[in-house]
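Hypothesis: this fold can be encoded by more than one sequence.
Test: take the structure tokens below, design a sequence, compare later.
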């Protein structure tokens, strides 16, 4: 059986869980709730990058990203940040939906699965 490493865990959740081959990230959101979609997306991707590094991998190994947007009005601006973040030649699968997020000030939440 493969050991599971839990990163930044508390009584309710882990921000990431990793096995020998896969890394699962909990939903990542911006810290600055007053920022626009561009800044919030950049902050969320920075958290993704940090958690992937803590798990011993990086964005070039991302397999899938689920993107939750607060508003479809943010879709194009989000995609501009996405296009700058994604590793050329290593584009992951992605799904994008408009949802009601837990905090109405959050514009985007990212859920990531990566490999080692």
């Amino acid at each position: 059986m493969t050991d599971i490493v839990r990163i930044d865990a508390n009584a309710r959740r882990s921000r990431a869980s990793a096995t020998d081959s896969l890394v699962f990230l909990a939903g990542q959101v911006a810290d600055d709730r007053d920022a626009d979609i561009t800044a919030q997306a950049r902050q969320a991707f920075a958290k993704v990058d940090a958690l992937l590094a803590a798990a011993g991998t990086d964005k070039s190994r991302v397999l899938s990203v689920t993107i939750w947007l607060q508003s479809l009005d943010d879709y194009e601006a989000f995609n501009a940040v996405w296009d700058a973040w994604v590793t050329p030649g290593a584009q992951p699968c992605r799904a994008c939906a408009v949802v009601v997020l837990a905090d109405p000030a959050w514009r985007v939440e990212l859920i990531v699965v990566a490999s080692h």
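DSSP finds two helices and six strands in the chain. Residues 37-54 form the longest helix (18 residues).
Hypothesis status: open.
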